[in-house]
Amino acid sequence: MKVLVLAGGYGTRLYPVVKDIPKALLEVCGKTLIDHVLEKFIHVPGIEEVCVVTNDKFAAQLQAWAGRKTGLPFALRVVNDGTRSPEERLGAVGDILFVFDQEKEPVDWVVAGSDNLFDAGVADFVRFAQAKSPHASVGAYDIRDTAAASKYGVLDLAGDGRIVSLEEKPQAPRSSLISMCLYYFPREMQASIRRYVEETRATDTTGGCFQWLYQKSPVYGFKFQGKWYDIGSLESYDQAQKTYLL
Prior knowledge:
Layout: E1 2-6, E2 27-28, E3 31-32, H1 33-40, E4 49-54, H2 59-67, E5 75-80, H3 91-100, E6 109-113, E7 116-118, H4 123-132, E8 136-142, E9 153-157, E10 163-168, E11 177-185, H5 190-200, H6 206-213, E12 219-224, E13 228-230, H7 234-243
Parallel strand pairs: 1-4, 1-6, 4-5, 8-12
Antiparallel strand pairs: 2-3, 6-11, 7-13, 8-11, 9-10
C-alpha cells in the first residue's frame, strides 16, 4: 500500500500568502500542513511509500522539505507533474493518474489532500477501506452547517457505509455530511478513474470523479470525528490557526 499526497495546486485563493511557496508548506500551529498529513501515516502498518505530487514551480521547495525528513518507516518521494502555472495544472484527478501511470505494478493507494487538516487518526479509515476492498472508500465529515455544505460533495450513507447519494456542490444540500479529500483506491478500482476521464474529459476535482464512480460501482464512506478544516481560503486558514489546538 502507498500514500499519495496531492500538492499540485497553486493556491490562488490564498494569494498573496502562498504566491511564492506551496500551500502544503503553510504552517498551522507551528507545523506545515504536509507534516500534519505525513504524521497521520507514520503508525499505519503496511505503508511502503508516501508520494507527494506537486508542480514544477514548487517542486524544489517540497524536495528540500522531503530531504529533511529522516527516520520515517516508509520511503518518501516527491513527483513533479511538470506544470508551471494555474492554467497548465493537471487537476487533482490528472495528478492522481500521472502518479498511478508511473507504477510498474498496481498497488493499493490512499490519496490525501495536503490542504485537508484534521485531528483524527487514519488507521481506522484504512482498516474500514481495506475491509470494503475491492471497492473504493472516501472519508466523510459532518460540518454541521447545511448551507456551507454547498461548497463540497454532500453524502448520504447506508447503514453499512455505502454511498447512496453524492451531490457535488448542490445548491440546496440535503445534509451537512460532506466528502473529505481522503480516499482509498484499491488496485482493482484504478482503471475506473481512467474510464471517468475518458468519458467526461474532466481532470480537475476528485468530487466529480466520485460522483460518477458511485453510480457505476459501490463506494463506501467512513465518518470522521473531531476537527476538520479545508484550507482553501485565507478565512479558513485563519480559522485553523486560531482553533485547531483548542
